[in-house]
Amino acid sequence: MTTYTARPIDPRVLKELRSTDDAGRPAVPLTDEEGGAPLRCCLRRSDPGEEIALVSYAPLRRWAAATGAEPGAYDEQGPVFIHAEECPGPSGGVLPFTQAHRTVRRYSADGRILGGRLVTDPAGPAAFDEAFTEAFTDPEVALVHVRAVEYGCFLYEVRRP
Questions:
Q1: Span 6-43, pLDDT tens digits
Q2: Helix (H) or strand (E) holding 156
Q3: pLDDT band at residue 159, thresholds of 50, 70 and 90?
Q4: Strand partners, 157
Q5: In terms of Cα–Cα distance, which of 19, 22, 86 is closest to 51?
Q6: pLDDT tens digits for 35-75?
Q7: What is the average pLDDT score of the chain?
Q8: If residue 65 lies in a helix (H) or strand (E), which one and from where to where?
Q9: Cβ-contact 134, 4 below 8 angstroms
Q10: Across the strands, what pairs with 145?
Q11: How far apart are CA 127 and CA 129, in angstroms?
Q12: Angle, alpha carbons 157-143-121 (nearest 5°)
């Protein structure tokens, strides 16, 4: 069991993204015929036949707006899959999406990147716990983003325990 909590996209933000995403485009629902899309609303993979949407999301921008940080050029936006309609959110305390190489990117309280770590052991959450512990040992680190290596997509956020 991990001591760190993966944070899905906040339900209020999801409601906004289902209308207009962070790039100003309307969300377009689609039926996921194959399944397997990493859903950032409930932190699980989609099932075949579920209605999902691919939207543009700016996680650091939204965090900065709530905290007063100024991330400058580090304010990235990118594609994320979400359910097309409201969902109940994550169902457990297990770290999601740990079965592949991931980047754990560190951010300071002012929204600047402080480095990161490539987690290359896709055996499960233990390697991620180690990366989070290492990150939060640095008092300058306010939060981390877990991102996909192959596309750089945001998967979820972890904040200081």
A1: 999 999 999 999 999 999 999 999 999 999 999 999 99
A2: strand 154-159
A3: very high
A4: 7, 145
A5: 86
A6: 999 999 999 999 999 999 999 999 999 999 999 999 989 89
A7: 93
A8: helix 59-67
A9: no
A10: 105, 157
A11: 5
A12: 65
Here the tokens at position 82 are: 């979400």
Q: Which residue has the tokens 């900065």?
A: 64
How many other C-beta atoms lie within 10 A of the C-beta of residue 56? 16
Which is it for the CA torsion 56, 59, 61, 65, positive or negative?
Answer: positive
Cβ burial 29-52 (10 Å sphere, 16+ → b, else e): eeebeeeebbbbbbbbbbeeebeb
Those residues whose C-beta lies under 8 Å from the C-beta of residue 154, and which sit 6 or more positions away, are: 40, 57, 59, 76, 78, 80, 145, 146, 147
- SS3 (DSSP) at 133: helix
The size of the chain, in residues, is 161
* Alpha-carbon distances of 150 from 5, 67, 88, 145, rounded to whole Å: 23, 30, 28, 15
Supply the pLDDT for residue 23: 97
pLDDT tens figures, 80-118: 999 999 999 998 778 999 988 999 999 999 999 999 999
Q: 20 pairs with which residues across the strands?
A: 26
